[in-house]
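Researcher: I'm preparing a figure for a lab meeting and need a structural model of a single chain. I don't have an experimental structure, so a prediction will have to do for now. The sequence is pasted below. Please return the structure as tokens so I can convert it later.
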Amino acid sequence: MERNGMLLKDLSYPEKNDRKYVLAAVTNHGVALKWASADLKNDKEIVLAAVTQDGRALNSASADMKKDKEIVRAAVTQHPGVLKFAAPQLQIPGALDL
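Model: Understood. Here is the structure written out token by token.
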């Protein structure tokens, strides 16, 4: 996982729900978040690691994480075009205080 986070897509459900595997995968390749379990797509540490590595991972985060200012700020800082994936209330100019 530490070398190729995209391998997460080929793992079985238990591994896709394992924090250690998923954290290693998204730290290496943020968009690998799309293959994580729903529970881990709602885990702030996992999602923050993913969007910090690749802001586009915000698209795969849970709805709750898309409402989190810290998560969205990190994603937009890494890749400004991902603001469209944030919750509507965070898409308003000035909402993130960037």
